[in-house]
Amino acid sequence: METKNFKIVSSNSSVDWTGRKVTGAHNGTIGIKEGNFVLNDGKLKSGIVVIDTATIKILDITDSDTNAQFAGHLASDDFFSIEKFPTASFDILTAKELSNIAYYLEGNLTIKGITHLVGFEAAVENSRNVISLNGKLIIDRTKYDIKFRSGNFFKDLGDTLIYNNFELDFNINAEAIFSEQSKN
């Protein structure tokens, strides 16, 4: 059985986020700090993706003052408590192969120091020494103590209500890690 380790190339990977509210949605990006995947005989077995919460960006708000104010709010304790929790992570515990490129990934998602088991489908393409992983994870933010304007915790929010679920769209690229011995 051949085991290969792949290191995430942060500069060639992205995570897009979307949060919805009664009156519309906001979207943006967030950076990947580091991570890796392990493949056995060409099949994904495990891995970890570490998100750099300080890199969160809002793409749909073009006014710089409003954008900065919103970014500050996302960094606050109402949302991601970035100062206390500079990273979030997804630790893949199982990767069930659904087809040649489709997997159901299940693992521990940790946000704000709170961990829950989550799962989602992902496409994993393996071209020898490079793999790409693409998938969408839908998260109930209230499970991670992100309760701001949630209808589960506050009454009469009207059109200021923010829906509990938000989406993370992963587009991750990783390269094989070669030891000095395997290069010979």
Automatic annotation (TrEMBL):
Domain Lipid/polyisoprenoid-binding YceI-like, residue spans: 5-175
Domain of life: Bacteria
Pfam families: YceI
Name of this chain's protein: YceI family protein
